Amino acid sequence: MLLTTGYTMIRAFVSGFADGVTKAYKTFFSNKKKLTILGESGVGKTTFIKYLKGKTEKEALETTQTINSEKESIKIDKVSFDIVDMGGSKTNYKSWVKQVKDTDYLLYFFNISSIFKKDTDYRIKDDMKQINEYIYNSKNIKKVFIIGTHCDKAKDCDNDQFYQKIIDSKIYKIMLANLGGSDMVCTIFGSLNSTKNFNKISDTVIKVINDEE
């Protein structure tokens, strides 16, 4: 399942989950699963986890930095699961590889508002070089998510042509190819600037994984 038509499609896709995140969690987390979150610093990895832990919007948006890695066992409706938040520095690449080998689901975050800047382009390419071999050789990974965040800061974020431009870009195609191809990857564009926008992303992630299980 590949969701690549941008934020408008994602918004329509999750609108059917009227009961929200909590109901989705009840069916999804029937047993413990391991999710690994990768991406450079500042793309929203830790913010995403804070929201999952039930933090308020204010708490989730407080700026923090994961230096190495942090593992969270989060319990929702008496069911627990493990999420590993990996530090975004290149010095953590060896740890990234170790986590990719053992994870069930991989979430790769990037800042959509800077995707066409050279620094972001180079960094994404470096990330892909480090992890693509282990994704293709992994016997554990069931699904990979490419999650473009900070849509609220992107120019023309309400224009579907903006997202199509990303889908057609060379850097996106590099991500798709290195992270397992269209059969393996689900792409989501959105923002983490509010609980409401977090729910749109998390509901989609949960629905897709639940379908896999």
Number of strands: 6
**Helical residues, percent:** 40-55%
CATH C-level category = Alpha Beta
What percent of residues are in strands?
15-25%
Order of strands across the biggest sheet? Answer: 2-3-1-4-5-6
Which structural category fits the helices and strands? alpha/beta
Secondary structure topology:
Blueprint: H1 7-14, H2 20-28, E1 34-38, H3 45-52, H4 57-60, E2 69-76, E3 79-86, H5 93-102, E4 105-111, H6 118-137, E5 143-149, H7 160-168, H8 170-178, E6 185-189, H9 195-212
Parallel strand pairs: 1-3, 1-4, 4-5, 5-6
Antiparallel strand pairs: 2-3
Task: Provide structural commentary.
- This protein has 213 residues and is an alpha/beta fold.
- It has a single domain, classed as P-loop containing nucleotide triphosphate hydrolases (Rossmann fold, 3-Layer(aba) Sandwich).
- 45% of the residues lie in helices and 19% in strands.
- It is built from nine helices and six strands, in the order ααβααββαβαβααβα.
- The protein has helices spanning 7-14, 20-28, 45-52, 57-60, 93-102, 118-137, 160-168, 170-178, 195-212; strands at residues 34-38, 69-76, 79-86, 105-111, 143-149, 185-189.
- It has a six-stranded mixed sheet, sandwiched between helices.
- The longest helix is centred in the middle third of the chain and has 20 residues, at 118-137.
- Mean pLDDT is 78; it is low at 1-20 and 26-30.
Compact description:
With 213 residues, the chain is an alpha/beta fold. The protein contains 9 helices and 6 strands; from the N terminus they run H-H-E-H-H-E-E-H-E-H-E-H-H-E-H.
